[in-house]
Amino acid sequence: MNFIKTKLDGVVIVEPRAFSDNRGWFMETYNKAVFDKNGLLYDFIQDNHSYSMAKGTVRALHLQNAPYAQAKLVRCVRGAIFDVAVNLRKDSPTYKQWVGVELSAENRKQLMIPRGFAHGFVTLTDNTEVCYKVDNPYNKDSEIGIIYNDPDIGIDWGVDDPILSDKDRVATILKDCVITW
């Protein structure tokens, strides 16, 4: 695996190696010993899988407050997404900055997002499936949703009229959120 650091401390692009032959290919998407050796010390406890029917679907921006904050290892297993991590660690020099990377079934890249970040993505194709590992369980009472087009964050999702869930449509702006790490 190749681990590529981004401008945001702790957010890492993971490029698994695929081994191809006449049958297709095989790749290891996660190996705790390899991740640990590269400083990515996580104990994942749950795998999640989402399906989005239409291109232009935005699922964003989500996080959970402490003690339920989650680190995520995200990959796209069908189609393609523009995946985004937003630094919400107030003591960080890159607070409110974001990084985005295209993840697709074709490029097989993954994005490692540590605790302290909001996460979201937009689908670049119809019939998109995303899988991600988390290191803490879902907790409805600690969940926070930040509106995808928050002007203080300024993410360019590349869509003018995104498809949103009812919950994401009424999400709040960052400055009105109470975030605890």
Architecture overview:
- The protein has 181 residues and is mainly β.
- The protein has one domain: Jelly Rolls, CATH 2.60.120.10.
- 6% of the residues lie in helices and 40% in strands.
- It contains two helices and 13 strands.
- The longest helix has 6 residues, at 32-37.
What is the strand and helix layout of this fold?
Layout: E1 2-5, E2 12-15, E3 18-21, E4 24-27, H1 32-37, E5 46-52, E6 58-64, E7 72-78, E8 80-87, E9 98-104, E10 110-113, E11 117-123, E12 128-134, E13 143-145, H2 166-169
CATH-derived topology: Jelly Rolls
Counted up, domains total 1
Give the spatial strand order of the biggest sheet.
1-2-10-7-12-5
Radius of gyration: 16 Å
Portion of residues in beta strands equals: 35-45%
Q: So, the CATH homologous superfamily?
A: Jelly Rolls
Structure characteristics:
about 180 residues; six-stranded antiparallel sheet; mainly beta; five-stranded antiparallel sheet; about 5% helix; Jelly Rolls
